[in-house]
Amino acid sequence: MIRYALSCAADHPFEAWFSSSSDYDDQAARGLVECPFCGSREVAKQIMAPAVAGTKKRAVPDAPLQTLMSDMAKKVRAHVEANFDYVGDTFAREARAIHEGTSERREIYGEATPQEVRALKEDGIPCAPLPAAPPDPSKAH
Predict the structure, then answer these.
(1) What is the pLDDT of residues 26-63, one digit of tens each?
(2) Which residues are 109's β-sheet partners?
(3) How many CB atoms sit inside 10 A of residue 108's CB?
(4) DSSP string for residues in the chain
(5) Which of 23, 30, 33 is nearest to 9 (CA)?
(6) pTM of the full predicted structure?
């Protein structure tokens, strides 16, 4: 198995596994390789040292995947902060009130203890953790 770093015509980076380099070439020529973000079939290999499946496990995640996940987490957090109401440490109480119809229906975010989250989930009230804010690079050691 060979893993390739790929990108589409819209510069979306992603990775994919193929059984061989000729397998990638064949699938790409037939239009079977597409961007998971936008569906574009205009896909090209990026410069990299292809990873070949083996028995050794790597302790450090691949930089492209780590960067992609970090970028997505930042976007999710920014979207929530820009579009949801911050309710602070009253999140569990407010989420329950919205679910029960005693408070205005709206999207919220805030803080909750693990016990509060467990109780919400047990009662069928949807909630999910907000991705952590990324560390400030200017404060790195």
Answers:
(1) 898 988 898 887 888 899 988 776 555 555 555 555 56
(2) 86
(3) 19
(4) -EEEEEEETT--EEEEEESSHHHHHHHHHTT----TTT----EEE-SS--EE--SPPPSS--HHHHHHHHHHHHHHHHHHHHHSEE-GGGHHHHHHHHHHTSS----EE----HHHHHHHHHTT----PPPPPPP-GGG--
(5) 33
(6) 0.51
Give the model confidence (pLDDT) of 62-85 as tens digits: 567 778 888 888 899 899 999 999
Give exposure, 9-22, as e/b (b: 16+ Cβ within 10 Å).
eeeebbbbebeeee
